User: What shape does this take?
Amino acid sequence: MKNNINKTVFGFILMFLTVASCVKDDDYGVPDISITNPDIPQEKITTFKAIKSLYEQAVNGGNTTVIINDDVYIEGYVVSSDKSGNFFEELIIQNKTDDNNPDNDPRLGFKVDINVSSLSDTYQFGQKVYVKMNGLTIGETSGVITIGKGDAVDVKQIQASEYKEIVIRSNEVAEISPKIVGLADLTEADENTLIQLENMQLNRFELGATYASESFDEFDGFRLLESCDSGISMIMQTSTFSDFKSLIVPQGKGSVTGIFSRDFRDDFSVIIINSSEAVNFESTERCDPMELTCGLAATVGTGNLFMEDFEPQKNNKPIEIVGWTNYIEAGTVAWEGYSSTSSNASLGRSARFQPASSGDDSSIGWLITPPINLDAHEGITLRFKTSNSLADSSFMEVLYSLDWDGNEANITTATWGVLSAAYVVKDTDSFVPWFNSGSVDLSCATGTMHIAFKYTGSGQDTFDGVYELDDISVDYEE
Assistant: This one.
């Protein structure tokens, strides 16, 4: 028994000595998880604003990128995390921990394109980093300013063999306060930064949807969020590779925190969250509008109360039709005549709302039909067509009122509901075709109705989309 014990002890000692003799401490020792703070001379640190200005100068000179040849660094904070799989091979960094900063150094952010997954293992949310800019390329990918390698044409990924020498960690992990902002106040300067939207909810037509595991979700799920304060919408983009894709989007209302960005094709603005915990819809109350839900009619009557195709209107001039109301609630832009044979052609002449370059902080325009006596005929229906030229988060609603008196001064105080059965072109729809509304049944209402086509947007680049409207027809059964 004693001999067996001695042999066993000897075996353990021999095994330890063998392992110890084969292992080099510098290769397989206990890893050093501490971070040595980088010693970067203050005089070599430049600002995000200076780098952005270099890129803008290049664009103004007809180039698509700029290559930094100076021995300079930028310092910023990581505000993205790929831990939940909603970011892939990229870091989003911004220059501030909060939005309290001098006007001469505005809060700005960049995307850093890196050919490495699981970047959150190296860079924590809130971690201060220094980016060595010498030799890097600044350009635009998917509509946002991006840092990477590349040439005079394209931004390419920083490779795995070099990224830690380029994006250098410090030992500071800061608390990041998102910018609390209204949708109408977002600008391109807010892209690649952390924002928080308050009093938001999932659009009522998407209740019960998952973040990104519906049958129609390909690569990303797009869910329409809307503000209970302004009615303005924002699309939440979630990767089908995220680990929360199968969760149901909360059905109440509250706040959502994420990165303000653009979709892959740069067609519309999105908010991208780091995890499902970023959606805090704790209130069970919702702010859904009043709706008329007669549905769509199976047939369209042969009688016609009125048909408007806008052919007599003048291009780029406000719509003027007897009995119709073209009302500017905010801004300086009205619904106007429009004719085009380009890729997003009009239907002959159409009605259009386009606030781009107006300089207006807000643009709200109403085009309202003449009164419709719902009691005079059976089977009254509404039909129209819509198209857009990149909605850019602006939106158009089709509303109805049974108590508006026809006086412009009383438009905003009248009771307006939504004709929810009518299809209006979406931000995610292609900008080339025209979309039919369907034959919207109005027969479940009584009295006198006005129908309004209401646009909400502004002169800002992220909120200045174009909507077109045509072939409005109100029919009835004879």
Notes: Helices lie at 2-22, 25-28, 48-60, 163-166. The two ends are 109 Å apart (CA to CA). Residues 391 and 426 are 8 Å apart (CA to CA).
